[in-house]
């Protein structure tokens, strides 16, 4: 995910090898040297593969927790900026608030990026949440995501498709466990808890090819959001294409965005 605001480009995760990542950036109308900061959620390859090379070739500032840097050796060979899950830090015009999430790797984190250094509960403000690769949603995560104007949230699997799908029992247990990935119903519960009148964009991410479908993920999320009275847009991020740019400005109480010109581009 890339956030564009005030001439600054903030990217969350870099899960492709650098040539493929550059191709996707260019498809989104960005040059690779446009990226200023890269924030890594955790140390699995599909979230960090291009980060170190991007720092070496294009000068990206890379942020990562100790568990992420320790797991991915290439990150130890570049200048990097550390954070502890639960802390906040400034990246250009954004203040990035973090919280730890349960995943099968050390120091996995989720984020709320707030524009122009405003407090996390400022109103109105650009507040973009990003939470993917987590087995469940702790209360601290739900609290962090409340008030977001846009949200990227994992909706990885349908429980029944996972149970009857191609994965062996041990992998099913990992994916569906407390330190695995967020199921459609658990994602829906998060959305019910955090939806509010200013939430303008919801993007479902990390949708499994084998144990889910975009239609199932969207239906589960839509049912939850309808109960919450959600009036914004709902999307399923494709794995082989880009989604966006999307306007991440909050919805006004009377409808419509408060401000334009603030973009988000996503890929699963």
Question: What would you note in describing this structure?
Answer:
The chain is an alpha/beta fold and 268 residues long. It has one domain (2-266): Ribonuclease Z/Hydroxyacylglutathione hydrolase-like (Metallo-beta-lactamase, Chain A). The chain is 28% helix and 24% strand. It has 9 helices and 14 strands. It has helices at 18-27, 45-48, 51-58, 66-71, 139-145, 159-164, 169-176, 184-194, 214-227, and strands at residues 2-5, 8-12, 37-39, 61-64, 81-82, 88-91, 94-100, 109-115, 127-131, 150-154, 201-205, 233-236, 243-247, 263-266. The strands form 2 sheets. Strands 5-4-3-2-1-14-13 form a 7-stranded mixed beta sheet. Strand 9 (127-131), helix 5 and strand 10 form a beta-alpha-beta unit. Helix 8 runs parallel beside helix 9. The radius of gyration is 17 Å and the shape is globular. The termini are close together. The model is unreliable at 253-261 (pLDDT under 50).
Provide a quick synopsis of the model.
The protein has 268 residues and is α/β, with parallel strands linked by helices.
Search tags:
268 residues; Metallo-beta-lactamase, Chain A; 9 helices
How many helices does DSSP assign?
9
Which strand order do you get reading across the main beta sheet? 5-4-3-2-1-14-13
Reading the helices and strands in chain order gives EEHEHHEHEEEEEHEHHHEHEEE
Distance between the ends: 8 Å
> In percent, how much strand structure appears in the residues?
15-25%
Strands, count: 14
């Amino acid at each position: 995910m890339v956030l564009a605001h005030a001439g600054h480009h903030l990217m969350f995760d870099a899960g492709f090898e650098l040539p493929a990542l550059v191709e996707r950036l260019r498809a989104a109308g960005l040059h690779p040297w446009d990226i200023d900061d890269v924030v890594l959620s955790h140390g699995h390859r599909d979230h960090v593969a291009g980060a170190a090379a991007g720092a070496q070739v294009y000068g990206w500032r890379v942020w990562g927790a100790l568990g992420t840097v320790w797991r991915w050796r290439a990150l130890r060979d570049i200048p990097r900026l550390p954070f502890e899950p639960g802390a906040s830090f400034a990246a250009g015009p954004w203040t990035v608030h973090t919280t730890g999430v349960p995943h099968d790797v050390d120091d996995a984190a989720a984020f709320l990026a707030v524009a122009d250094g405003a407090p996390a509960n400022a109103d109105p403000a650009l507040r973009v949440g990003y939470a993917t690769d987590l087995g469940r949603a702790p209360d601290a995560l739900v609290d962090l995501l409340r008030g977001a104007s846009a949200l990227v949230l994992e909706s990885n699997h349908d429980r029944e498709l996972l149970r009857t799908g191609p994965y062996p029992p041990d992998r099913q247990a990992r994916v569906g466990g407390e330190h695995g990935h967020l199921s459609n119903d658990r994602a829906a519960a998060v959305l019910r808890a955090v939806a509010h009148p200013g939430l303008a964009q919801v993007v479902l991410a990390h949708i499994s090819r084998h144990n889910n479908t975009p239609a199932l993920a969207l239906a589960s999320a839509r049912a939850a959001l309808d109960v919450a009275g959600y009036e914004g847009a709902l999307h399923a991020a494709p794995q082989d294409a880009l989604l966006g740019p999307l306007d991440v400005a909050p919805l006004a109480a009377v409808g419509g965005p408060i401000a334009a010109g603030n973009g988000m581009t996503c890929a699963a």
